Amino acid sequence: MTLIRAEGLSRRFPVPKRHVFEKQHQSTALEPTDLEIAEGESLGLIGESGSGKSTLVRLLLGLDRPSGGRVIVDGRDVDAAARARSLHWLRRQTGLVFQDPYASLDPRMTAGQIIAEPLWALDVPGDHGARVRDVLVQVGLDADMADRHPHEFSGGQRQRIAIARAIAHRPRILVGDEPMSALDVTVRAQVLALFQQLRAEQGLTLIVVSHDIGLVQNLSDTVAVMKDGRIVERGTTAAVLQHPREDYTRQLLAAIPSIRRP
Ligand SMILES: Nc1ncnc2c1ncn2[C@@H]1O[C@H](COP(=O)(O)OP(=O)(O)OP(=O)(O)O)[C@@H](O)[C@H]1O
Ligand SMILES: [Mg+2]
After folding, report:
1. Contacts by 154-159 with C-beta closer than 8 Å and gap 24+?
2. What CA–CA distances, in Å, run from 246 to 56, 81, 213, 224, 234?
3. Atom 25 in ligand 1: which residue has the minimum CA distance?
4. In the chain, what are the domain boundaries?
5. Considering only CA atoms, which of 90, 159, 92, 147 is closest in space to residue 119?
6. Residues 159-195: pLDDT tens digits?
């Protein structure tokens, strides 16, 4: 079943004018794009910096308004122009992990408050305190760490708190935009294992933007390759990484020394 569908989805941004009489120019971050993501699929999004990966995921989650086209999640139109409250149905189904665990956690709040926030903001029923403790354990932290503040955690622990927050309301869709680039190798392996466990146990649909091809290789069933605001290649991870059809994909993969090729 298709869970997320983009139809002719595009995004342009106004280019800053150099002088007042200059005509307003637009730059295209995303060319009209069609994309389908199946329920339970794990999609890796790769492509050079500025190719439109973050723009695409922001539009898919209704965090940004498209210049054209539309997004349909679970059969419903994502109207990013709507008032925040009317997108609660989408927030309930989605969790987001950003790149930087320092910037995404409010330093004045305790870990417990940070993780519980989406639970009360989205009117999730149940005992929020109990859920916070469960989810802390699930990401490999101690339940009593809920009372600590972000600065009392290491970088890797902070990123786990960000992940705990993203999964606390049991989303069907988890989106990570470079979710592991701030983590060292061992913590990366632990977080990777957690994502795989959540997929196995909860049938999570996963969209991960990453420059780390090793991560994509381990986590994603399918890969989409972006260049200049377009998806230039999409297929199974094995097909795209081992037998890329596009020269651009070959160049992108060749630029990454860690990839294993047969
Ligand atoms: N808010 C914005 N205002 C103006 N231009 C933007 C905005 N957001 C993105 N862009 C432009 O859109 C293009 C795509 O950016 P995007 O952030 O989606 O790339 P990306 O693939 O995520 O890159 P990276 O790998 O560096 O994160 C870039 O040219 C960028 O400068
Ligand atoms: Mg980006």
Report:
1. 155/101, 155/102, 155/182, 155/183, 155/184, 156/183, 156/184, 156/187, 156/190, 158/101, 158/102, 158/105, 159/97, 159/101, 159/183, 159/187, 159/191
2. 20, 36, 16, 12, 10
3. 49
4. 2-100+172-254
5. 92
6. 889 999 999 999 999 999 988 876 778 778 888 888 9
The pLDDT tens digits of the residues spanning 209-244 come to 998 888 899 999 999 999 999 999 999 999 999 999
Q: 55 CB under 6 A from ligand 1?
A: yes
**CA atoms 133, 139, 141, 146: torsion sign:** negative
Residue count (the chain)? 262
| Ligand 1 neighbour 53 (Cβ under 6 A) | yes
Nearest 5°: phi and psi at 242?
-100, -30
- At residue 182, the 3 state secondary structure works out as coil
- Surrounding residues of ion ligand 2, Cβ less than 5 A: 54
71 CA distance to ligand 2 middle (Å): 19
Q: In this predicted structure, what is the pLDDT of residue 117?
A: 95
| DSSP string covering 9-71 | EEEEEEPPPSSTTSPPPEEEEEEEEEEEEETT-EEEEEESTTSSHHHHHHHHTTSS--SEEEE
15 backbone φψ class: left, alpha, beta (φ>0; ψ -120 to 50): beta
> What's the token pair of residue 124?
């999730």
Torsion, Cα of 147, 150, 154, 158 (10° steps): 100
CATH number of 2-100+172-254: 3.40.50.300
